[in-house]
Amino acid sequence: MSKQPTSKRQWRDGSAPSAKKTAKPSKSKARPKNETGKTASQPYGQKASDGIKPQNAPKQRAAKAKKLVVRNPNQKIMEHARDLKERRSDLSRMEPERLQKVLAASGVGSRREMEEWINNGWVTVNGKTAQLGDKVTPDDHVTVKGSIIKLKWADRLPRIILYYKQEGEIVSRDDPQGRVSIFDRLPQAASSRWVAIGRLDINTSGLLILTTSGELVQRFAHPSFEVEREYAVRVLGGLTTEQMRSLTEEGVMLEDGLAKVERIYEQGGEGANKWYNVVIKEGRNREVRRIFESQGLTVSRLVRVGFGPIGLPNRLKRGQFYELNPAEVANILKWAEMLLPGEYRRKKA
Asked: Which of 80, 83, 174, 302 gets the highest tally of CB atoms within 10 A of its CB?
């Protein structure tokens, strides 16, 4: 018997085509049975359908992102990159690190969560209840909520990829609405996981940096480091010279505090649409959009084109990613004042 064809709507909604009925249903209403075969009881006044919880929306299909292919650098750079990739740090010589930092880098949770768990007494080090401020080494044994944690140490060069995020994609692994996530498109990172440095909302496109180093994420994203973020902004209408001066010198008060623009200049446009280049040092939610809204303008397109020392590559197309080679990663670590594998800080006398 041939299968009944599935319509596009049924395929989209994930519903199967209903089979034709060959016999009339019995008038007697059978009570639903549970998994053991016994009749399931329903509370008085409750329908059988009342206990069914709404399921999450079906996950949208996402095509894998294509990798930007570039020419190999010269022989000298390739040899240097190969040496960097093979380098390992001697774990016995690593300096003690703060417990919450190591737990976060090991994928247990965020630093803030780890601090709360330590305060709650859920973390032990070598059998003793940990205290906030404790430091650990690779020789220490750590448990969290009774489970032994295999700590991960930065003994090798981290990986960094640049992704040209498209509108309509979210920067999250869990979404009840089933929307496409950037993590659905990107390749898996062996023995670790990609962590996005900062976020872009669903309607914003452009440069997104992902890495396997929690310390590098902290160095880029924490407000105390004031790393510049550069955007190309298209609005309907335009700013006056006085408005641009006010945004850079005085800033504008938003509902979550004062927002200030580091630099802003016009980049042209067609008709009533104007493009601006905007640089800020914070990454608050929808900050650039809200800054322009405070001036009576609505942003129709927002593209991040730079983050710290990294700019959006000209050859990188929307939906593509590029992985930095080891030599490029080493340059980023030097900018972040982080040690390369095999390097150690000198102890203060």
From this structure: 302
